[in-house]
């Protein structure tokens, strides 16, 4: 799949997160924010002829992107926050305590979406 398709899917996930925010589905906002970030980071790897690992760990992906562009280091804290959302916001059987306070509230969902949007925009500028 061409790199620009990865970033297009990331942008679609950002759009989906906004829809979920409007509908007050905060767990889905966080999930789509995670997904958008993952796809954007993988677009950077693909763009640099690196086959990304089949993982969902944003910290590991950002570390790989840092090897390409040091500017990714500014997003490390944000991806650590986003990383916590992959399992517990998607599956009702996630272990208790997967997120510090259970399901995310609106303020956390807004933060997650802001972090994802910033990372997607940064990636977009690097590849398009």
> Which radius of gyration do the C-alpha atoms yield?
14 Å
Structural class: mainly alpha
| Biggest β-sheet strands, sense, barrel | none
Give the integer mean of the pLDDT values: 88
Distance between the termini: 15 Å
Please give the count of helices: 5
The helix fraction, in percent, is: 55-70%
What attributes does this structure have?
single chain, 128 residues, mainly alpha
Structure notes:
The chain is mainly α. 63% of the residues lie in helices and 0% in strands. The protein is built from five helices and no strands. Helix 1 packs antiparallel against helix 2 (26-47), helix 1 (3-22) runs antiparallel to helix 5 and helix 3 (58-66) packs antiparallel against helix 4 (76-83). The longest helix is centred in the first third of the chain and has 22 residues, at 26-47. It is globular, with a radius of gyration of 14 Å. 37% of the residues are buried. The mean pLDDT is 88.
Task: Provide a concise account of the structure shown.
The protein is an all-alpha fold and 128 residues long. The protein contains 5 helices and no strands.
């Amino acid at each position: 799949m061409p790199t620009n398709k990865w970033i297009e899917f990331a942008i679609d996930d950002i759009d989906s997160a906004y829809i979920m925010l409007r509908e007050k589905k905060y767990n889905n906002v966080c999930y789509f924010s995670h997904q958008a970030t993952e796809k954007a980071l993988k677009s950077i790897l693909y763009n640099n002829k690196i086959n990304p690992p089949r993982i969902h760990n944003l910290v590991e992906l950002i570390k790989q992107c840092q090897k390409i562009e040091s500017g990714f280091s500014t997003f490390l804290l944000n991806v650590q926050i986003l990383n916590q959302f992959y399992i517990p916001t998607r599956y009702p059987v996630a272990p208790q305590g997967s997120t510090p306070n259970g399901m995310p509230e609106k303020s956390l969902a807004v933060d997650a979406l802001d972090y994802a949007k910033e990372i997607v925009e940064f990636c977009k500028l690097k590849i398009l």
